[in-house]
Amino acid sequence: MNLFEFIKVLFSDPYKWKSITNGDKKKNHFMVNRMMSINYPLHAQAFNHLKIDPVSTINFWQQFMSNIYNRVPFWIYTKGAKKHKEAREKKLDIKETTIKKYSKFYSLDVKSVRDAINFFPKESASEFKKFEKIFK
User: Fold this and answer.
1) Fewest 10 Å CB contacts: which of 36, 65, 80, 112?
2) Interior CA angle at 135 toward 130 and 136, to 5°?
3) What pTM was estimated for this model as a whole?
4) Which residue ranges make up each domain of the chain?
């Protein structure tokens, strides 16, 4: 059973939960605990610190969450940093290769260039368009 099917059953299907094997629970333990730490960091850290059996931990999360939620909550599925960065750069139409070339050409670190893009998006967009025209 993959992680997302497992999460769906954990929150919304207590009858199917009984048929999930201990092997599946052990396999998904790390990611489930990591996801639960988004909203319940103290609980998740306690399970990490105490080194409780993974199956018991997953059973706790299922009992605890099924009392609160009847479907998968929105906070389980968060955007990753890579998708967020790609979406931001897509809006500005600035390619990663252009950012790297720009930083190398002006002897700047890539982080500073990205910060400039975040803080001054309009000015950065025009600057990078000029830069791309020069090197085409």
Assistant:
1) 80
2) 100
3) 0.57
4) 3-76, 81-134
